[in-house]
Amino acid sequence: MKQSLILIDGMSGGGKSTVVSILGQKLPRTSILGFDKIKRFVSDFERGVRDNQIARDVTMVMAIKYLELGLSVIVENPFKSELEIDGYADIARKSGIPCFKFQLFADTKVALKRVMDRTKRNNGDLTEERAIRNISLFQPRNSLGLTVIDTTNINPEQVAEKI
Length: 163
Prior knowledge:
Layout: E1 5-10, H1 16-26, E2 30-34, H2 35-38, H3 49-68, E3 72-76, H4 82-95, E4 99-105, H5 108-121, H6 128-136, E5 147-150, H7 156-162
Parallel strand pairs: 1-3, 1-4, 2-3, 4-5
Helix pairs in contact: 1-7, 3-4, 5-6
């Protein structure tokens, strides 16, 4: 596989983590980065503008370094803005590699069930109210050049194949 940068955006419960895990098994020499993984590096991480931005900045710096070292990179993030997506696209352009951009979503009831099942499986403390709020923040981004994939009725392996 040629070196590339793959961006995976999407709603809570859209299947990002599951699909990225499958892609990581299929794509050789690929680093998998994501906001949720990076924030765990900060011992007292607090959801908020300051710490969220730290995690986003570190994710981008790590992506740049992995690309410099010749690896492909998958970034799994709920991207904050068009500017953030464009920043990654610029990194790919400067590196002379393709940037593939995807957004995963599901029917809100399906997404909520996935999130609550995952929370229970991981002994998490996410409330249903917070999960509903997170899901409600979803905005389709096909206008930003992201290929939007509805994961409601297809399994994660099929989504990975599309990507």
